[in-house]
Amino acid sequence: MSDSPEGHEQVQRGVVSAVGAIGAATLASRVLGYLRDMVVAHAFGAGPVTDAFLVAFRIPNLLRRLLGEGALSTAVIPVFTETLTRGGPTAFGRLARAATGAAIVVLCLVSALGVLLSHQVVAIMAPGWRADTGLFDLAVTLTRVMFPYLVLVGLAALAMGALNAHHRFFTAAIGPAVLNVAMIAAVLGLGQLLVQLPELRRLGVPLTPSAEWRHPAVARIAHRLWPAVFALAAVQITVVVNTLLASLLPTGTVSYLYYADRVMEFPLGIFGIALATAALPSMSAQAARGELAGLRATLEFALRMAAFVAIPAAVGLVLLGGPIVRLLFQRGEFSAADAVLTAQALTGYAVGLPAFSATRIAAQTFYALGDTRTPVVVGFLSVAVNVVLALLLMWPMRHTGLALASSLSSYVNVLGLCWLLRRRLDGPRGRDLWRSLARTLAASALLALWCAWTSGLVPGVPGPARHGLGWTVVALIGGVAVYGAAAAALGSTELRGLLGLLRRRGGPLPPAGGR
User: Fold this and answer.
1) What is the C-alpha separation between 344 and 7, in angstroms, rounded?
2) Whole-angstrom Cα distance, residue 257 to residue 288?
3) 410 contacts 352 by C-beta, under 8 angstroms
4) Is there a contact between 363 and 417 (Cβ–Cβ < 8 Å)?
5) Which of 21, 47, 192, 445 could disulfide-link to 169, CB 3.0 to 4.6 Å?
């Protein structure tokens, strides 16, 4: 593929098509996840038992996200793609078997270590619970039950990397949906792995392990892995910090943050993470071929598309967060007061949604270039900022302050990464991004007026008389229509790319320097 405008557009069309497949699979996963959370909220509300379960689940789930949606796939995909591009299927098959053998050994050791150290892990994650022996012991027991699934979900991440290197995205992305269906003890990740095996077999990818641990590409994966764990996990590390600090606040705080984070992750997972996942194999291939102009074009395209979706989504979550939380969770033991407090946390998280989306894209650009150091340095800075802000905001703003600290620190992360990318790649180019951002902000301002009116927040202007289920659905659908119409009136080229995605036929894409 040539490093020309036509070649760039072909890559972008491939990214758009992949986002459609990943987004559809992620939508299924998120819907099933919400059904799971609705059942938990109905049965247990936002009390101490739910807090214990969420802390226990968050520890191995954090590792799942680092492996399945972050560091392992980010370390594996560039090496897999480079091997497939330069060495062909035979060299790729040899690498896949060697990586599988090494992964089984490492994952089993980490899982066993987690079971043995569950008491210490919970003590670190929730130090405020040491005074409540029953609650602490329950969290330890649940953590020991959860840890073994890390082995299977890690192998599922390896399979996902192999599929993505072949530009097969839907099967890999549907795995978490199976996880939500089969959420039982140590078999949690089994379905997530098995669902990917038939397509791997059709592609001729062997995942039977070998003992060739000294394969040079395995060493490159290991070299990329640990820096990627920290650099791409900055968002997840802030979640751990928030959980630790939340245990020092009143009972229920962990639950409020968890449910709010789940709502915020709906647009983030369906489009933000999907876009970063779809772009990584293309960027890795461009870097392997030395097509830096094409890599810059793909980066700029991904950032503009991410902002086009994340900014209005953040506006909607801030202004309609209360009705959305009530619609999803307020039933059974989950009270109206729980809904109000969860909506407050959602506001804090929603502020950072654009940064959460862009951080993944910017960080993975460095990994496509083989640079593991820069994202680590910026990630350390981001986490340090989060800790300082969380300590400053948690007492006056309680759980909302913890969520807001995560959001603000993510802006430090993405701005630092983009500034360094501009120095290295002469891009992303500020002028093009600012033009796109100006259109997106203008359309989002009209969306904000709509949301404020439907919520009765406009002074002197009467809003809708009812705020039930039907009103919430109408407000959400109307908001999408208002934003889409405003973007079209402003001549948004990003809208054409998104409509092409929705139609699944790769419509016109935003040019690198388009107005």
Assistant:
1) 46
2) 41
3) yes
4) yes
5) 21
Backbone angles phi, psi at 132, to 5 degrees: -105, 95
DSSP string, 420-478: HHHHHHS-S-HHHHHHHHHHHHHHHHHHHHHHHHHTT-STTS---S--SHHHHHHHHHH
pLDDT digits (tens, 9 = 90+) for 288-334: 888 888 888 888 888 998 999 999 999 999 999 998 998 888 888 88
Report d(CA 155, CA 150) in Å as an integer.
9
CA 414 to chain centre: 14
Task: For residue 365, give both structure tokens.
Answer: 């650009």
Distance (Å, rounded) from C-alpha 73 to C-alpha 175? 14
Q: Cβ-count burial of 357 within 10 angstroms (0-12 exposed, 13-18 middle, 19+ buried)?
A: buried
Position 494, amino acid: E
Q: Find, among 184, 179, 187, 145, the residue nearest to 60 by Cα.
A: 145
Per DSSP, the three-state class of 148 is coil
User: pLDDT tens-digit profile of 171-222?
Assistant: 666 555 555 554 433 334 455 566 667 777 777 777 677 777 678 888 887 7
Q: Which residues contact 338 (CB under 8 A, 6 or more apart)?
A: 45, 46, 252, 255, 256, 329, 330
This model's pTM is above 0.85: no
User: Mapping DSSP to helix (H, G, I), strand (E, B) and coil, where does residue 380 land?
Assistant: helix
How far apart, in whole angstroms, are the C-alpha atoms of residue 37 and residue 180? Answer: 10
pLDDT of residue 511: 45
In terms of Cβ atoms closer than 10 Å to its own Cβ (0-12, 13-18, 19+), residue 436 is buried
- Cβ atoms 355, 412 nearer than 8 A: no
Domain boundaries defined on the chain: 1-43+232-431, 45-227
User: 3-state class of 132 per DSSP?
Assistant: coil
Query: 372: which residues sit within 8 A by CB, 6+ positions away?
Result: 223, 224, 227, 228, 231, 366
CB-based burial, 393-430: b 16+ in 10 Å, e otherwise: bbeeebbbbbbbbbbbbbbbbbbbbbebbeeebebbee
